[in-house]
Amino acid sequence: MPPTLDRFFRAFEGTRSAYPVAIFRIAFFAGLALHFFPSLIWFDEGYRPGALRAEDWSEWLYEHFWRFPQRDLHVLAVLTIVACVMGIVGALPRVAAIVGGVGLYAFTSFNSIHLQTLALVEAWAILLLWMICGGGAATLSVEALLRTRKGAAPETREPSLLPGLVLYQVLLAVFFAGVEKVLAGWPWSNEMGIVLSYPRGFLVRDWVAGSSFMHGWLMTHFATCFTLVAELGTPIALLFKRTRLVALVVYQAFFIGIIAMLEVPPLFYCTFAFGGLLALDDEEVDRLCARLRRRS
Amino acid sequence: MLQGRARRVFVAVWILLGLAGALDHTIAENVLGSRIDLVLPHLKYGYVMFNINPRTVSVYEYAGADGVRHDLADLVATPAPGYARARVAIDAGFQPAYLAEICLRAWRATHQEYDFYVDTYEVEPGRSTLTNTSVHHCSPRGLRDAADAR
C-alpha cells in the first residue's frame, strides 16, 4: 500500500484516547434527548389520530403511519427514550444507536412538524455510523463502571474508526455550509445584517433584537466575515497539528456565538461544538486532561 | 468489527458518499440539470445553515381576555428548549394550517378564546420595519379573521 494512502487512513485505524468520543457520546445523545423527548412525551400533540402532520423524511412511513396501532407507537416511543438514555450513560451504545435511530427516524417520518428538519441531517449520519461502528463507551460510562467494579483495569483507548468518521461528517457539513454561503453570494452581501436585524420573536434572541450595536454596520459585516472564515477555514485548519488549537478556539467561539445569538435547537450545538473536540489527538487530550487535573 | 481492507473500503465509500451529498446539493442542479437521489437520509438536504435568509418575516403572538400579548409559542404544549419561538415561526411559515392547529389545541386545553396576532416585518441590514398586522380570532368555531369573527 502506498505510504500516502496509509497516512490518509491512519485517522480511521488503530486506537486513540477514549475521552473525546465519550464526551461526544454524552453530548450527542443528550442533544437527541432534548430534541425528541418533548415530542415523545407529549405524544398526543404529534401522533394522535387527526394531528396536523408534515412529511420530510420517509414517504412510506408517513403514508403508513395510520396503520400502526397507537399502542405499538407508545411502546416504540418508550423504547426510543430508553435507547437515548442508554446512549447518554454509555450502556451498549451500538444497541442504543440502532433502537434509538430507528425509533427517531420513524417518528420524524410520521410527523416532522415539531422536529426542525435541518437540525437532523447530521444526526442521521452519526446514528448510522454508530450503528455500523459501535463503541464510545470505554470511559465515562456505565460499561466502564461495571468493568472496574469487577476489578478490570480501566480502558482508556477506543478504536479510531467511529471518532474519525464522525469528525469527518461534522467538518464536511461545516465546510459545505460555507460553500453554500459563497454560492449564495455571501462575501458580497451583508447577510448577517439581515439575520441580526430580525425582530424580537423571529430566530434571534431578545438581547440581539434589543441591541442597536448588534445591528450596526461594523458588527454585521464582522459577523458575515467571521462566519465565512469559521466555516471555510476551521474544518481545514483543525486537521493540521500546527493550526489545530487556534482553529478549535475559533470553531468553538463560532458555535457559542450561534447558540448565544440565535434560537437554534440544542441538538445543533451538541453535535457540532462537541464534534469539533474529536479533532484533538492523544497528546493534546493528555495535555488538556493534565491541565484540568492540576486545576481541580 | 470492520478489519483491514474492508474497513478502508467502508471509510472510502463513506467519505465519497458524504462528498456526493454535498455536491448534489451545491452544483448538481447546475451541472446535471437535476439532483440525484442518494437514498440515505443524511444526504437528502445537503449541508445548509442560514445561507439564504428571508427578507419578509412574521412574528406570532396571542392575547387572552386581558389583551396582553404573549409569544404564541407559549400556547404550544410540546416544549422546545431554547428555540420555541423560532420553531413556531418556521412551522407556521411552512404550514399555514399550523395556526389553526394551535388554536384547536389551546381551546381544548383551556376553553378560552384568544386573538392571534401575526406581525409582518420587512427586514434590511440594520433594521426591521413592521408592515402589516393581521388578527385572527381563536374560538370553538376555529381560527377566523378577527373582523369577520366579531
Give a quick summary of the entry.
Chain A has 296 residues and is mostly helical. Chain A has helices at 3-9, 19-41, 43-47, 59-64, 70-89, 93-110, 121-133, 142-149, 161-183, 191-195, 206-209, 212-215, 217-237, 241-261, 266-276, 282-295; strands at 15-17, 157-159. Chain A contains 16 helices and 2 strands.
Number of DSSP strand runs of chain B: 5
- Mean pLDDT of chain A, nearest integer? 94
The profile of the biggest β sheet of chain A is: 2 strands, antiparallel
Number of helices of chain B: 5
Arithmetic mean pLDDT of chain B:
92
Q: What's the gyration radius of chain B in Å?
A: 22 Å
* Helical stretch tally of chain A: 16
Report the uncertain regions of chain A.
none
By helix and strand content of chain B, what is the structural category? alpha+beta
How many strands in all of chain A? 2
Strand order of the largest sheet of chain B: 2-1-3-4-5
Helix content of chain A: 55-70%
Shape of chain A: globular
What does this structure look like?
The complex is a heterodimer of chains A (296) and B (150). With 296 residues, chain A is mainly alpha-helical. Chain A has helices at residues 3-9, 19-41, 43-47, 59-64, 70-89, 93-110, 121-133, 142-149, 161-183, 191-195, 206-209, 212-215, 217-237, 241-261, 266-276, 282-295; strands at residues 15-17, 157-159. Chain A has a two-stranded antiparallel ribbon. In chain A, helix 2 (19-41) runs antiparallel to helix 5 (70-89) and helix 9 (161-183) packs antiparallel against helix 13 (217-237). Chain B is 38% helix and 26% strand. Chains A and B meet through helix 2, helix 7, helix 9, helix 10 and helix 13 of A and helix 1, strand 1, helix 3, helix 4 and strand 3 of B.
Task: List the keywords.
A: 296 residues; mainly alpha; two-stranded antiparallel ribbon; 69% helix; B: 150 residues; alpha+beta; five-stranded antiparallel beta sheet; 26% strand
